[in-house]
Amino acid sequence: MTAHYKNIVVHLPNWLGDTMLALPFLHGLRSVFPDARITAAGRLWVSDILHHFPPLDAVASISSTSGLINYLRGEKFDLGFLLPNSFRTALAFKLGRVPERAGYALDMRGILLTHPLKLTDAVMRESMVEYDMRLLEPFADISEIPRIMKLYPDEADRAEARRVFLENGWDGSSKLVGVNPFAFQWDTKRWLPERFAEVADRLAERYGVRCVFSSVEKDRPLMEKIKGMCRRPIIDLVGKVPLKILPAFMEHLSLFITNDSGLMHVAAAADIPIVAVFGSTDWQRTAPWSQKATLIRRQQDHEPCMKPTCSRDFRCMNDISVDEVFNEAEKYL
Asked: What is the CATH number of the domain that holds 254?
């Protein structure tokens, strides 16, 4: 059934966390099509983390819809999987002359797909891991496919990550704990920064760990604010960790304390313990795919609101205390 597909392309999600939750799908795709050439295409800010990912034969960074269409035409793919749900992506695959196209029949694009999947209420209650995996249902029994959440940093990545740590205050032996008070765009994803600072101080004082903060450079103002709150020295790697070495960066950490974010899912792929604080987002859909993750959240009558700003009292985050997060972190240390 699958042997005649020789050249397959996957359009990656547009965000880092969604791309990480698609890792089991990418592993599963390789198991279903073991002899095909498989390429992942996506924006640079997600594709670069897969630069060394054995289930794929190639990774293409695409900067525009017209560039995607031209790329698809040039590569002559025979099957495409569309992880984003947009009409524009499906149209690009059609205009790019990919003859068979699998994706969810959303955004009025069902007519553009040869293997459309219906979105049911039951599917919407599943993890994004299962949501993506269902795209393989027309080609295989997905119940037989292992869900593998894993990245594969190479030795060059590991050497670069170690250099970044050493050049920014690590002594080479102290235990490292990642602390991530950042989250892209949504204020309602962010637990209070002063509470992250307090947790970092307590961990440093009780366990002698070095707490590491990392994000993109646009989060520099919040990082400076938090540094002013911390009593103990921290390692500030904001703007200093390229996307491609994030998997190796995570390997250095003994624990990751975080908001719901893309970095949380990179930590899950690195198989390190996670304490994750959830506010406005749907934890059933976007919880880390990990047996080593503790989720801290508050049940609200309107939860999850899925809104970037709070029009109420922000109780979903305000009611989560420093003691609660610290106590859960202690269990891993």
From this structure: 3.40.50.2000
Residue range of the domain that includes 100: 7-144
List phi, psi (to 5°) of 113.
-110, 140
Q: Is residue 1 part of a domain?
A: no
Residues of the chain with pLDDT under 50: none
Output the six-digit token pair for 224: 């400076």
Measured distance CA(251)–CA(220) in Å, rounded: 24
Measured CA to CA, the distance from residue 259 to residue 108 in angstroms comes to 33
Are residue 120 and residue 170 in the same domain, yes or no? no
Give pLDDT tens digits for 273-300.
999 999 877 888 999 999 999 999 986 6
CA distance 93 to 282: 30
pTM, two decimal places: 0.94
117 three-state secondary structure: strand
**CA gap 104, 100 in Å, rounded:** 14
260 touches 276 (CB < 8 A): yes
Q: Which two tokens stand for residue 280?
A: 């406005």
Q: What is the pLDDT of residue 303?
A: 63
Residues β-bridged to residue 213: 179, 236
150 SS3 class? coil
Distance (Å, whole) CA 164 – CA 49: 17
Give per-residue pLDDT as tens, 165-188: 999 999 999 999 999 998 876 677
Alpha carbon distance 14, 10 (integer Å): 12
Domain boundary among 87, 118, 144: 144
pLDDT at 313: 61
Residue 236 sits at the vertex; the CA angle it makes with 189 and 241, to the nearest 5 degrees, is 80
